[in-house]
Amino acid sequence: MDPVISSVLRFALGWILAESAYDKLRHRRDFRRTLAAYQLVPGSALAPVAWGLAAIEATLALSLGLGALAPWAQAAFGGVAAPAGVTSAALLALYGAAITINLVRGRRDLDCGCGGPARHQQLGVALVVRNALLVSAALAAAKAPEPRALSGLDLATTVLAITATLLLRGAGEVLLANGPASARLAAEMRA
Fold first, then answer.
1. Total Cβ atoms within 10 A of residue 94
2. Is 70:78 a contact under the CB 8 Å cutoff?
3. Which of 34, 53, 64, 182 falls 20 to 30 Å from 20 in CA-CA distance?
4. Residue 189 neighbours by CB distance under 10 Å
């Protein structure tokens, strides 16, 4: 994989996981309530599981962030990104499975818990698809970048691509969060 693409994937995934860990830690009670609503974790384990998920996300964010520097730092940080990519893929797949289980149970009214209480997102197939795409990106991020000389243009491309990726992701999250309200508004306008 090209080192620019590798850096973009690793940094963007690291950013997403860092945001998620921050939201879980900042809104601990809300996240525990969301976790309880999924009905997949026994009540006595909610607090340690909530802390554990936030800690795992923060660790992976740091590892992926350092791994994003690998092509620029003569592979000094390259060794941390491969396990972090695979572990991120497993964590994101676990989240996707939890969403899928509740969708199969017919529980679409739950908040996914993805962005803290300020960004409520109801469960839906779009979240499962989003997680599948993130799993694919995490597995791609686990691949070592091809060694090649990097230029100033590569650095500029990397920074712009990371910025664009994060902006697109933010727009996608807003669309997912506003989907149910948009559907209700469209139904009211047709009526």
1. 14
2. yes
3. 182
4. 7
Q: Where are the domains of the chain?
A: 3-190
Instruction: Report helix angle 152-190 to 125-141, nearest 10.
Output: 170
- Compute the distance between CA of residue 112 and CA of residue 152 in angstroms, rounded to an integer: 40
- What pLDDT, on a 0 to 100 scale, did the predictor assign at position 186? 78
Bridge partners (DSSP) of residue 122 are 111
CB 10 within 8 A of CB 64: yes
Q: Residue 122: CA atoms inside 13 Å, Cβ hemisphere, count?
A: 11
Q: Which of 20, 12, 9 is nearest to 121 (CA)?
A: 20
What residue ranges of the chain have pLDDT lower than 70?
67-81, 115-119, 179-180
Query: From CA 12, how far away is CA 141, in angstroms rounded?
Result: 10
Single-letter code of the amino acid located at 115: G
d(CA 40, CA 52): 15
Count of beta carbons in the 10 Å neighbourhood of residue 44: 8
